[in-house]
Structure prediction request, 522 residues.
Amino acid sequence: MSTQNPAKIVMRDVHKSFGPKVVLDGLDLEVGQGESVVVIGGSGTGKSVMLKCVLGLLHPEQGSIKVDGEEAIGMRGKERDRVLEKFGMLFQSAALFDSLKVWENVAFGLIQGRGMSRDDAKGVALTKMAQVGLGEDVGELSPAELSGGMQKRVGLARAIATEPEIIFFDEPTTGLDPIMGDVINDLIVDCVQELGASTLSITHDMASARKIADRIAMIYKGKIIWAGPTDEVDHSGNAHVDQFIFGRAEGPIQMEVLRP
Amino acid sequence: MVAVSTNFLAAIGRIFLAFMAATGRLSIFTATALSHCVTPPIYPRLLLRQMMSIGYYSLPVVGMTAVFTGMVLALQIYSGSSRFNAEGAVATIVVIGITRELGPVLTGLMVAGRVGAAMAAEIGTMRVTEQIDALTTLSTNPFKYLVVPRLIAGALMLPLLVLVADIIGVMGGYLVGTEKLGFNSASYIDNTFEFLEQIDVVSGLVKASAFGFIVSLMGCYHGYHSRGGAQGVGSATTNAVVSASILILAANYIITELFFDI
Prediction:
């Protein structure tokens, strides 16, 4: 599971349970400097939990998560704030603040996190919105007035507004039509190349994974069971990966479906 | 028989443990929130917005509650005191009843219904739509951004609301006393202020501040810990109002004992 670049994020033997339910069961994964890693896997396999563990939103019971060589598990206060400043995240539901206008959402990290003045932050926000194809007029709307695709674009603009070193994408194309999904994928690739950021994405959309990933890893039952370059995913030799990427009901992954 | 009694004891044990766990979670939440109240940054814009929401926008409902309470209080005291020819005490009992008890308690309960529920619903929705996680990833502490402005605004605005409720409640009593019960206007006002002491008003305002803190704390706590979509947010809203109401009544008794040392 190692990378050729110096590692930006290193997860080793990460365990996380909720009561008796084991979600992460010794997960190992690395994300290299400037690398785009996409983790694929079915629903409930621990993809979102993995991201939340790295961000400190959930606390693993065991294992190690290093960001730029610093142990992130157990970090608190200003130390944790300093590490979090390196991150940007696009949430599955966009998670826009519905009490704020669109431009205020994009500028939020600059105003609250970096202490930038509202006027300066608005300028940056409008530039970032233009980068994802949104005009100035959209900035004055409230998030509830936007379509799903536009909300994702605003979420992307917010994620890149502070020019983070690491960006997480949580199901970036879920809920979008295939064309809008591809537009979002292109925007992600463009924005990440421009920033030179390292990215970790989770998805079960293979078209999205193939487009944005340098490397793909598959998570199953809380473990990374295969990882490799994107162009090798079709010849992984792993029956779990083959079943997932070709979307077959038959195979080693058995869905728990109650049949009548 | 042994199995039944064992099951019964196990059920009591489970309830006790769940209660202790909830108390522990609330204590940690309160301590964390208080520690953030005294350390920068404080967001003045958000604080002002919450002060408007809790204070200014609650004025109509608090005013209506106070005026009718003052009116009915005057009627009831007149009716009761006429049995032993003590009608002259109506004004005094109305003002003491309003300032010490009914003003703060009814204002607290009305604000719990109006504001506590809204807080739990707003923060709960933010929780289930990952907006609180988004705050963290944008280098913003959710306690400082969401909880602290509401707690401070609650503790500051409830005393002002109660002061307004006291004045309107006493005016309600005055209206009924002079227009319906036949009291002389000047003597009713004289009786109102003759036996009113500073501690009657101050104790009510101290209660109000405590009630404001309780309403905001319960709204934030239940919203922050809500889970599971719309149903979870609904439960959080109900729990916020019910727990705030019960805690207000319990705190009212404790503060009354502390002030008046009966």
Remarks:
- The interface with chain A takes residues 122, 126, 129-131, 133-134, 136-140, 145 of chain B (CB under 8 Å).
- Residues 48-260 of chain B form one domain.
- Chain B has one domain: 48-260.
